Amino acid sequence: MTKKLKIGLICGGTSGEHEVSLVSAYNIQAALDRDKYDVLLIGIDKSGTWFLGETPEFLENVEDVRQVKFKHNLPARLPQSGISAGKKLAVTEKSGNELADVDVFFPITHGKLGEDGALQGLLELLGIPYVGADVYGSAICMDKDVTKRLLQHHGIPVSRYKLLRNPDELSFEDAVRELGNILFVKPCREGSSLGVSKVRTVAEYQLALQLAFAADRKVLVEEAISGREIECSVLGNDSPEAASVLGEIAPRREFYSYEAKYVDDDGAELIIPAEIESKVSLQIRKAAVEAFQVTECRSMARVDFFLCEDNTFILNEINTLPGFTKISMYPKLWEASGLAYSELLDRLIQLAQE
Fold first, then answer.
1. Residue 127 to residues 50, 120, 341, 352: CA-CA distances in angstroms?
2. Of all residues in the chain, what percent are helix, strand and coil, respectively (each to 5)?
């Protein structure tokens, strides 16, 4: 009989996407085939403290992204990790043995310190395979400015933007003159539309800068693109084996905000497959794979585009640890492409071992 693999499913974290991570982790553990895998949940709370637990009792209120949380009566606890405090990870004998038995780590820690290469660096030091992009790909794709520059260099179209390192660098009048009457202001290194504002006036611009700089020292001011929001899932390592069918996000709010993605069930309509001319669909899927390679991605990524009326397209961003909630596009696109949720998880674990 083949020995079962022990999967260390890391979730939570100190970012603003903590709750989404917990929901993703719950769905992943529920879909992992227990005939193939033993699952250890490794939780990181909002203060940076690490926990170990068995699933699914590790979490509560998993049906509500606004209320989901770790349970208080957790069976084992790793002392303060220092991910937020700058201290070493302290490990008890019991917890150390459990971590040492992990065959593959599966981080589903969205956002800062979980998706930006920080956690990936720790896993590299442990020398155990893990799902997702490595340190380089994670860091590159978390930084929208670096991502755009790499894509531009390789001829992949991106929106026009200005990078700001302080809020006084670019006046609203100059931004409008260079980028258009409607602008997006966003933190350079955040995910899930956190801290993103759509602005049309000086007052909105000033508030948007305050919000964005509260989240990051680098801020982007981008032109607003009029187009359909199209997403593509990519799977593979150095030579990505596939890009999924395309899906379309039809927001019912001003734009596809964090609330529309995760909180409001009616925040957006997901259209899978997207109704796009086959030639254009092929071009977008090809661009998604090329972007995956250019930005040093591995394992998986969701690549987001804007499709304009004239069938030209612009790459918006690349997400190296996409959501695995019940409405998340990454697994839904693979299901529509013929790869079931549990089979997708199998493949991601195989890619980590490779």
1. 19, 11, 27, 12
2. 30, 25, 45
Sorted by sequence, the CB contacts under 8 Å of residue 115 that are 6+ apart come out as: 15, 107, 109, 138, 142, 191, 320, 321
How do residues 137-180 score in pLDDT, each as one tens digit? 999 999 999 999 999 999 999 999 999 999 999 999 999 999 99
Domains and CATH numbers, the chain: 5-130 (3.40.50.20), 140-157+226-353 (3.30.470.20), 161-223 (3.30.1490.20)
Cβ(22)–Cβ(46) below 8 Å: no
For residues 25 and 9, is the Cβ–Cβ distance under 8 A? yes
Q: Is-cis flag, bond preceding 167, omega within 30? A: no
Entry pTM: 0.89
Contact 90, 79 (CB under 8 A): yes
The DSSP symbol for 158 reads B
